[in-house]
Amino acid sequence: QVQLVESGGGLVQPGGSLRLSCAASGSIFRIGAMGWYRQAPGKQRELVAAITSGGTRNYADSVKGRFTISRDNAKNTVYLQMNSLKPEDTAVYYCNAWERGRHYSTPPDYWGQGTQVTVSS
Known about the structure:
The protein is mostly beta strands. The protein has strands at residues 2-7, 10-12, 18-26, 31-39, 46-51, 57-59, 67-72, 77-82, 91-99, 110-111, 115-119. It is globular, with a radius of gyration of 13 Å.
């Protein structure tokens, strides 16, 4: 099994920045792609960003140019740098991982517990 633990959420003003981190542990050799989903109140979960083991990145249109996903394989950690935050970015953000060979367009195999991001003045 794989465990994912997020950190870095919080309250930020519009236009501000936050960086989320997610540390993976357990059977990390099983992990291929990693990413971040989010869920806002009353909305469906959406894939915000994903990064393959080779470093290919994918972003939701709503965050392109503002969010950057990266990973440090030596530390088994994935990051989400969020800049120019908007109130509509308010959501619970979940770290995800897919088993090797599975594409990030499929449902994730592993989920973190989630971290709240609130963008408000």
